[in-house]
Amino acid sequence: MSDGTYHLSARQTVVVRRSGADTDGEVLEVEATWTGGGDLPPTHLHPSQDEHFEVTEGELRVLLDGTERRVAAGEVLDIPRGTAHAMTATDKGARAVWQTRPALRTEQFFAAMDEAHQRGGSIADLVPVARAHRAEVRFTSPPPWLQVPLFATLAVLGKLRRRRRV
To answer: Which domains does the chain have, with CATH numbers?
Structure first.
């Protein structure tokens, strides 16, 4: 979406407050909204970026380096680069200001995730996004030695699937 609003999943939307272009690549700042409940998304890490969350409403359920915790309105969560994590809202939903430093191509990743979900959000839609944005995000499972060939195969299947739709 070109207006700076991106749907990262059926339950999560971000609105860009300050883009990497606005900050000379220093930070991407978004306001994130999660609707309530649901499973945690896949555990992932950011190899070269730190994240900072200030929860403004509701409560987040966070898995951080294998330990689950809750982060409520008024609380702050910092996730250093390379730290495995996943998060979603508790049943009542949540809102947070989320900063990613440095910005890298995170906004482009968000745009690609939005487009993948508009196409249906299947694994074949999402894998090419993950492959194109390895500098910004890496999944912790399956192991990296298996991800490379598996994701390459799934990316080809995704392209073939998209061609059939056109």
So the answer is: 5-101 (2.60.120.10), 106-165 (no CATH)
